[in-house]
């Protein structure tokens, strides 16, 4: 080992010795712990060893000085006689408390006392510098083998893992241990190691001298990256033969305090209600340290460095140094004074030792939440307002309050309540959610003539109760004075509606009643005038000054304007205020019935068979009056005409119904009107002769009429039938005129067919080309054949075999019009029309196009026929009757090809 490592020797009662080393500021576990009741431990310093000052890092000088409790089981506490230079932790580790420089010639004896509950024991620790040049290494021997079987050698100690400190400063390589085999005395061996860190990734960390077997570390180690290595040592001869079984070597990386604590958040946010008692939990802050948490390097402690603001005291909060929990330690948290605190929290490793621990800081922001510790207070003790009478949903006054609690929270929102002065419940005080004001609102109409002023008592509270110990002050109650202003109110009719009962038939100009309105404005002198708003039957009149109602027509209960014996009329009363006000009232007239309507027969039409059996007619008496001015009714047949009683009979079935039937065995079919006299039961009975229209008809076995005279039975008279016949005759005349007009129009259109545009005509056309340049063939073309049909060569000299089927037959030539040899281009239309008329009047014309008369080119023409009809014997089965619909020009074709065989 180099001089930067500590060389220590643990002496026991036997002479066995061991060495272990430690880097600066690094804790080194011993190969074994000295566990005796009274041990003596000698620790020697290397030459020129200098320990760093405490404020930088602490030096672990030795393995734990471990006292056995000798079976007592009580905790042991250790102390040393030189606490200014050394200290001993509870786990027995000796620390250098400050920078030390020792001479190699002198050794320091450190007395250690172990104390339990009942007694104490002492131990001496000798600190010395080992002699220079000591290069002894820990030696690991392979177990000896006999007959190829392993046999464990009995030793006084067991090989523990090799401890190597992290972050060593070198120089490298640094020897760790020597591996030796008992066979190296008889032959040359080669040593090697395998495993992660040697020949496996990460490679090159550990190397071994193949001859001496010295195992060395080649670079600084990082415990936070790899905390231990597992290697295997091998011994082979020069031929590569294995002479020993591999042994496992465990190398532990000893932690060094090379990582500062890191808070999981740099800014921590917490809340605590104002007025909280001391000991109230606020929040917990945490930090982590990458160093070994089992050692002091990773053991953290927390503390509060500062508090802002320092009001009301500088230590309003404290923190648990182990858990990081922050709690309150003082009373007086008031959000209205200090809404937020900022704490600087420090976390230190090495169990919070400020001399050699590493630290880091974070910020804790603690917001003081609001509680309802401030009641709302009115800005004034008296508020006032005014409102016009009969107004509703009107804001009268705005009540303003102040509240120191946080706005727009239940502890700040005010709730208003009327505690006095509003016994009728005409006001309410809702809260404006934005301004927190109380809005005094009228919810029921106020009558100026009844109450002119109101004095309300309003109380303001918060939505949530006040905190314990807080009471509402005097300013949480206010007085509201409201003045009511008078307005011109509408007159009102009393009672409304007004009901009167009268007999119908009351004559015009009869007084009915006085219907007047009252003015609610008792403090105003006003005049009311009356007028009529609604009088459906126009029966009534009202005096505009007195309100007297009289009739202007006879009241009739049976009128359609009367519903359920009630007639409603509406009147208006208008005062002369500014502005004028009006009111309406309804007069209901209940009309009592009198016998003013004669009864009638229902139905008025019926059917009966020629033979009376089994049919009969049931009739009902209908009277517009009510009982007792209606039924029961008396029915009888009139005496005239005389045949009524001879042919018919009437029988009363009940007070309202009767049955009419034939008195004779047979009555000829027809329409008969039967006069029936019906008399009601009024105090002054009324009679009426009603006519029952009866249709006598032939009936089937079911008693239903079988003739076709239902139209007459339905009520169609002679006049109606005549009117229907006249309409039919007029319609037929119109249709005939339309047909004649269409035929005339069709003839005119046919006469002008040859004058239409050639591009629109689908028939063969004769075109005149008179604008060509005059080629060789055109100049020699003879048009005389088209202009003079009479010069055509006779048909008789034509060969028989070349006659066309649609060619003109051998008949005398008709008298067709002649044209001059050089006609004027404008008269060709007249020429064609004349030829067309001649062809239509020619009875011998065959069924081919009449245009052949004008376009025939002579015999032997290479142009062939211009006829579009190719008649042959093969068309004999075709139906040509449709040619009749094509006009007079095609009727000859229809007569020749259509019809019968003859």
From TrEMBL:
Record has Repeat as a keyword: yes
Membrane topology: Single-pass type I membrane protein
One of the GO biological process terms: cell morphogenesis
Gene3D superfamilies to which the protein is assigned, alphabetical: Cadherins (2.60.40.60), TCF3-CBD (Catenin binding domain) (4.10.900.10)
Chain intervals for the UniProt region annotation (Disordered): 771-792, 859-878
Record-linked SMART domains: CA, Cadherin_pro
Transmembrane segment boundaries: 711-742
The organism's place on the tree of life at top rank: Eukaryota
Matching SUPFAM superfamilies: Cadherin-like
Record localization: Cell junction, Adherens junction; Cell junction, Desmosome; Cell membrane, Sarcolemma; Cell membrane
MF (Gene Ontology): beta-catenin binding; cadherin binding; calcium ion binding
Protein role: Cadherins are calcium-dependent cell adhesion proteins.
UniProt name for this protein: Cadherin 2
Lineage per the UniProt record: Eukaryota, Metazoa, Chordata, Craniata, Vertebrata
Any one of the GO CC terms: apical part of cell
Signal peptide: 1-25
UniProt cross-references to InterPro entries, sorted A to Z: Cadherin, Cadherin-like_dom, Cadherin-like_sf, Cadherin_CS, Cadherin_pro_dom, Cadherin_Y-type_LIR, Catenin-bd_sf
PROSITE patterns: CADHERIN_1, CADHERIN_2
Keywords noted in UniProt: Calcium, Cell adhesion, Cell junction, Cell membrane, Cleavage on pair of basic residues, Glycoprotein, Membrane, Metal-binding, Repeat, Signal, Transmembrane, Transmembrane helix
């Amino acid at each position: 080992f180099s001089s930067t490592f500590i060389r220590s020797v643990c002496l026991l009662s036997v002479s066995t010795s061991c060495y272990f080393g430690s880097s600066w500021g690094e804790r080194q576990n011993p190969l074994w712990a000295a566990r005796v009741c009274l041990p003596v431990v000698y620790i020697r310093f290397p030459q020129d060893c200098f320990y760093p000052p405490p404020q930088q890092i602490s030096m672990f000088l030795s393995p734990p000085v471990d006292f056995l409790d000798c079976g007592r089981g009580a905790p042991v506490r250790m102390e040393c006689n030189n606490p200014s230079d050394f200290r001993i932790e509870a786990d027995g580790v000796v620390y250098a408390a400050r920078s030390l420089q020792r001479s190699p010639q002198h050794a320091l004896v450190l007395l250690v006392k172990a104390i339990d509950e009942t007694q104490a024991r002492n131990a001496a620790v000798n600190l010395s510098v080992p002699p220079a040049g000591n290069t002894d290494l820990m030696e690991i021997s392979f177990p000896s083998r006999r007959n190829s079987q392993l046999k464990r050698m009995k030793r006084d100690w067991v090989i523990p893992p090799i401890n190597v400190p992290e972050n060593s400063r070198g120089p490298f390589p640094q020897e760790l241990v020597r591996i030796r085999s008992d066979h190296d005395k008889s032959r040359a061996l080669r040593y090697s190691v395998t495993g992660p860190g040697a020949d496996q990734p990460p490679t090159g960390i550990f190397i071994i001298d193949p001859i001496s077997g010295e195992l060395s570390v080649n670079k600084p180690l990082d415990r936070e990256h790899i905390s231990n290595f597992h290697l295997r040592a091998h011994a082979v001869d020069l031929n590569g033969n294995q002479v020993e079984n591999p042994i496992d070597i465990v190398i532990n990386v000893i932690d060094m305090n090379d990582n500062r604590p890191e808070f999981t958040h740099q800014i921590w946010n917490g809340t605590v209600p104002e007025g909280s008692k001391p000991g109230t939990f606020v929040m917990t802050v945490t930090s982590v340290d990458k160093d070994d948490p089992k050692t002091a390097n990773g053991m953290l402690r927390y503390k509060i460095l500062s508090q802002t603001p320092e009001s009301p005291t500088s230590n309003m909060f404290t923190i648990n140094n182990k858990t990081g929990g922050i709690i309150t330690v003082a009373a007086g948290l008031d959000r209205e004074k200090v809404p937020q605190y900022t704490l600087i929290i420090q976390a230190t490793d090495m169990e919070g030792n400020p001399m050699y621990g590493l630290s880091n800081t974070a910020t804790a922001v603690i917001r003081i939440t609001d509680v309802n510790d401030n009641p709302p207070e009115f800005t004034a003790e008296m508020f006032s307002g005014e409102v016009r009478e009969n107004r509703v949903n009107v804001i009268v006054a705005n009540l303003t309050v102040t509240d120191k609690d946080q706005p727009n929270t239940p502890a700040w929102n005010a709730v208003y309540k009327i505690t006095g002065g509003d016994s009728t419940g005409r006001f309410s005080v809702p809260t404006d959610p934005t301004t927190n004001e109380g809005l005094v609102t009228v919810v029921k109409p106020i009558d100026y003539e009844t109450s002119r002023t109101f004095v309300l008592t309003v109380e303001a509270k918060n939505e949530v109760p006040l905190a314990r110990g807080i009471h509402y002050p005097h300013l949480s109650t206010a007085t509201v004075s409201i003045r009511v202003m008078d307005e011109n109110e509408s007159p009102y009719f009393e009672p409304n509606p007004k009901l009167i009962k009268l007999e119908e038939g009351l004559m015009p100009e009869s007084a009915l009643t006085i219907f007047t309105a009252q003015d609610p404005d008792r403090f105003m002198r006003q005049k009311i005038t009356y007028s009529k708003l609604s009088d459906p039957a126009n029966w009534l009149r009202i005096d505009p000054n007195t309100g007297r109602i009289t009739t202007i027509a006879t009241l009739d209960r049976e009128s359609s304007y009367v519903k359920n014996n009630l007639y409603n009329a509406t009147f208006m009363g208008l005062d002369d205020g500014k502005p004028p006000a009006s009111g309406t009232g309804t007069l209901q007239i209940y009309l009592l019935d009198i016998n003013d309507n004669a009864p009638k027969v229902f139905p008025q039409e019926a059917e009966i068979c020629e033979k009376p059996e089994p049919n009969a007619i049931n009739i009902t008496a209908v009277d517009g009056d009510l009982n007792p001015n209606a039924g029961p009714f008396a029915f009888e047949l009139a005496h005239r005409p005389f045949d009524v009683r001879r042919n018919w009979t009437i029988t009363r079935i009940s007070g309202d119904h009767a049955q009419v039937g034939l008195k004779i065995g047979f009555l000829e079919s027809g329409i008969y009107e039967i006069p029936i006299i019906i008399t009601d039961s009024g105090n002054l009975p009324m009679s009426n002769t009603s006519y029952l229209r009866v249709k006598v008809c032939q009936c089937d076995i079911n008693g239903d009429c079988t003739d076709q005279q239902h139209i007459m039975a339905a009520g169609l008279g002679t006049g109606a039938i005549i009117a229907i016949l006249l309409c039919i005759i007029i319609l037929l005349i119109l249709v005939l005129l339309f047909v004649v007009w269409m035929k005339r129009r069709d003839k005119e259109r046919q006469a002008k067919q040859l004058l239409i545009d050639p591009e629109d005509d689908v028939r063969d056309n004769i075109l005149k080309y008179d604008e060509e340049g005059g080629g060789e063939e055109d100049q020699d073309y003879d048009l005389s054949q088209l202009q003079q049909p009479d010069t055509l060569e006779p048909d008789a000299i034509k060969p028989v075999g070349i006659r066309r089927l649609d060619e003109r037959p051998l008949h005398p030539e008709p008298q067709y019009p002649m044209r001059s040899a050089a006609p004027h281009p404008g008269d060709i239309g007249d020429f064609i029309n004349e030829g067309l008329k001649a062809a239509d009047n020619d009875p011998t014309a065959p069924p081919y196009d009449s245009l052949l008369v004008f376009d025939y080119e002579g015999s032997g023409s290479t142009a062939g026929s211009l006829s579009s009809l190719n008649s042959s014997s093969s068309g004999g089965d075709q139906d040509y009757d449709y040619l009749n619909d094509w006009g007079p020009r095609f009727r000859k074709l229809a007569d020749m090809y259509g019809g019968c065989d003859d």
